[in-house]
Amino acid sequence: MSEQPILVTGATGKSGSRVVRQLRAKGLPVRAAARTGEHVFDWNDSGTWDAALAGAQSVYIVQLDGTRLVRPFVERAVRHGVRRLVLASGRGIDNPDYAKDPTGMAAAMADSEAAVRQSGLEWTISRPGWFAQNFNEGFFADAIRAGELRLPGGDGAASFVDAQDIAAVVVAALTEDRHSGQIYELSGPRAVTLAEAVATIAEASGRAIRYVPLPVDEYVAELVQQGLPPVEAEAFAEIIIALRDGKDEHVSDGVPRALGRPARTFAEFAESTAAEGGWQA
Fold first, then answer.
1. In which domain of life is the source organism classified (predicted)?
2. What beta strand segments (E) does the chain contain?
3. pTM, whole model, 2 decimals?
């Protein structure tokens, strides 16, 4: 298998970029595919799919949120002779009580999971919870750099998972036979509240950063004032409400089950990010 390239879609994203680095560190051939970068791949342009899939042995599928493009992509992968699929999905998509789904994102992810399972290929599904990297690379990052995180999260906690661990699980699933047919729910080893997370970052960075809990309507109004369409602002609020209500507080066994070691703690994430200069304002 190692002579054929491993296709990584979303290769510039939080998990995909780390998957690419970890595969290359093992000396494996990688086709890093994204809208910009080494190999052009665009979910919205199916004309880019064949060149990405040609000759690939395994594929990491990072789907485009809210779309149902994975099913036709998987059908194309089967025709190209791909052997193994690893799908990036999300925690809570099989729980109808997790959160409202006004944009259809969870329903689309569920369809993607079904497409992979029904493909006839070897498959593994990664279901990470909240990325720890949301604080330095995602939609909390600007607020953290500004010194104030304003969210309707109350004192809810989440078992934030480090994207390095997500990537390590994906790499194992792409390169080892024993993960076929597995669904790995991924989390950190302990739940932390937003206030605890911000305090941990403040300590690691040596900066003054605070968490400000907001009422939901005030949060939505602030997002709309910043230019976000109301339906998207409400969708963001629903995700934070799920966090507030403890829907992501539980600890999953995916990382130790896949890798045979504990997941990285939030403090380890914060400290390593500080060492890399990642908390600078």
1. Bacteria
2. 6-9, 30-34, 39-40, 58-62, 84-88, 122-128, 148-151, 157-158, 182-186, 192-193, 210-213
3. 0.94
Please state, as a whole number, how many other Cβ atoms lie within 10 Å of the Cβ of residue 271: 16
- Residue 125 phi/psi, 5° resolution? -120, 130
Share in percent of the chain as helix, strand, coil (round to 5): 45, 15, 40
In the chain, the number of structural domains is 1
Q: Residue 75 and residue 263: Cα distance in Å, rounded? A: 34
247-262: pLDDT as tens digits: 999 999 999 999 999 9
**Closest to 247 (Cα-Cα) out of 100, 142, 144:** 100
Is 89 contained in some domain?
yes
pLDDT digits (tens, 9 = 90+) for 33-75: 999 888 999 999 999 999 999 999 999 999 998 899 999 999 9
Measured between alpha carbons, how far is residue 134 from residues 37, 53, 83, 220, 227 in Å? 22, 30, 32, 19, 20
pLDDT band at 95 (very low <50, low <70, confident <90, very high): confident
What's the longest Cα–Cα distance across the chain?
A: 54
pLDDT at 187 over 50: yes
Note the pLDDT of residue 1. 43
| CATH number where 235 lies | 3.40.50.720
Q: Which two tokens stand for residue 106?
A: 């969870």
CA nearest to 89, candidates 12, 5, 31, 169: 169
Q: Looking at the domain assignment, is residue 128 inside a domain? A: yes
Does a structural domain hold residue 196? yes
Domain interval for residue 78:
6-275
Does 1 reside within a domain? no
As a residue count, the chain comes to 281
The answer for residues whose C-beta is within 8 angstroms of residue 161's C-beta and 6 or more apart is 128, 129, 130, 131, 132, 186, 187, 188, 255, 263
Mean pLDDT, rounded, for 217-231: 95
